[in-house]
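Weekend entry, working from home. Most of the wet-lab plans are on hold until the incubator is repaired, so I used the time to fold the two sequences that have been sitting in the queue since the last round of cloning. Logging both here for the record. First:
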Amino acid sequence: MTREDDLIAAAREAAGHSYSPYSGFAVGAALAFASGRIVTGTNIENASYGLALCAETVAVAKAMAEGMRGELEMIAVTGPGAAPITPCGRCRQVLNELAQLGGTDPLVLCVGPDEIVRLRLSELLPNAFGPAALD
């Protein structure tokens, strides 16, 4: 298996742990770091809908809580449906924060059942606001 295959498998496994009783839209995300480490997240819904957490945000929070800063190389996001999904706007910003800490522009794998769309984070979030903008 390739590194992409491993990352996609991790994202799909994470989606299996989704807590999405309201939408039924189980999403999994996996982050690959230069160290070889993979950190996963899944979406977590809440009865107060606005408090739901996206899979990508959960994965970034886990990584940062474990002291990981930067070196983000690749991201895989998968969910239900016939088409690949991309990170939402909020998640693009959260992913960008982690990527900018290490000066990377990670490859984002938007995974569907039969198709993978490969984009750089900078393509999904052009002219991004990040830590450097505060200097």
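Second, folded right after the first finished:
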Amino acid sequence: MNISQVSKKYGLSIDTLRYYEKEGLIPPVHRNESGIRDYTEQDCGWVEFIKCMRGAGLSIETLREYISLHAKGNRTLQKRKDLLIAERAKLQERLQEMQETLKRLNYKIDFYDKKIVACEKELLGRRKNK
């Protein structure tokens, strides 16, 4: 799959895909005889993984470390697991904060719904009295 196809498939710009590779967020992408990127299923798996992790808020530095550990093979399994556990804890904390924000937003929206209904009733009452 060429870079344009991967870009469309994952909803990432071509520049982002090049950046991910340049910064070591994905391992070097396979290239054909002409030197053009030719994404394999494994390459696409990395793109999908990084997109997911970036969407969850993992930093470039953390992902770079993860990729570096992965390149060192099975002797880094525990370190990779520990890194993911730490990131999961951060994500759970952010999710809890977002849930609190959502509750507050729902409260405020409900408040305005009640105010709007009250104002509409008041306006209708005025019109009837005229």
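Plan for Monday: verify the second prediction. The chain has five helices and no strands.
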